[in-house]
Amino acid sequence: MTTNLPRRALLAAGAMLAAPAPLRAQAAMRLVVIGGGFGGASAASFARRAHPDVQVTLVEPQPRFVTCPYGNLLLGGERQIGQITHSYDGLRARGVTVVQDRAAGIDAVAKTVRLAGGQTLAYDRLILSPGIALRWGAIEGYDQAAADIMPHAWVPADGAQTLLLRRQLEAMPDGGVVGIAIPPNPFRCPPGPYERISMIAHYLSRHKPRSKILALDAKEAFSKQGLFQDGWAALYPGMIEWVPGNRDGKVVKVDVRERVLETEFGTRHKVDVANVIAPQSAAALAIDAGLANDTGWVPVNARTFEARAAAGIHVIGDANIPGPMPKSGFIANTTSKQAVAAAVALHRGQPVPEPVYFNTCYSHVGQDYGISVVNIFRPNADGTAIAEVPNSGGVSPRGNLPDQRRAEALHADAWYDSITRSMFG
Q: Mind listing the domains of the chain with CATH numbers?
């Protein structure tokens, strides 16, 4: 056989054939990201900036993303829906291929994702950030149809649920009762229900001051409890009644037609507006792919976020079991970067970077009234568990500190603007 290729070209071709497979595949790595929320959008954005030679495809059925963070401020009248809605055009401008479709199935052996529209995407590594599913029927009588009357407003999608709850609050007569059912742990955004209580109280105090909020909680304690309750006493005295689980606060049944929330020991609470935050699990895509365990959440390696049930699939955001780390937007963002770094390193046969995970969670209690909690986490040496770094975290100081509360509200706004700009461009 003869060839007209120069000797140098032949040597180069021979060197590539002799090179290890990870090196040959490096430039052509295909990273598919499923889910365009805080985890997925952050992963796609970071991957393009940190690894411009990687082909990044984001699969997301919604044309725009409505955030859960700051959704409660819409209920309080402090934000409009457009202010918490974000386009994927900035990601496209960064070189991310955005596929507007729903991921219908994952083949971990073939390394493919099947889309609802019929397309199949091949990947070298998969970042899975599918979010949560509400466990319909976990509360008797609460199914998808019931959510049209008793909105959950916890899976924002296009924002319809949050807007529905807002309209119900606006239509409620002054002197009415807003009932809120709060689920047991774990669930998305542990402080979220209590910020929601605060923001609904903020709205009611201005427009329907004779109204009440009845918060029925499956738990005996909650995140930033002292700080929230200090704010409620100062800003909304007598308006909020919080009933913990050990005082019959767990909602087990709803009567949609009568707008009744029924608790564990048979107490029936008639309300004018019902917000039912149902128990949750990882989204159906993760469960159907066999990645979740009996808890309904996905166990992952603490250093790489690979699903323990399937190599090459890195599960981030609210769908995984992150040890002591909360299911927060900030955790989804910070762990997405480690998952991308680990995915690229493993594909190229390189060591996985040593991670540190940060969480900052702000909550609004009223206008110019913010509170926060900060945590730092590290995995152990073999990646089997995550622990909070001793003495690394903290919460806002308690007491009558108006300047502190005002500053934290401003910090919260700056955090939201910064993280969404980082995610979406």
A: 146-279 (3.50.50.60)
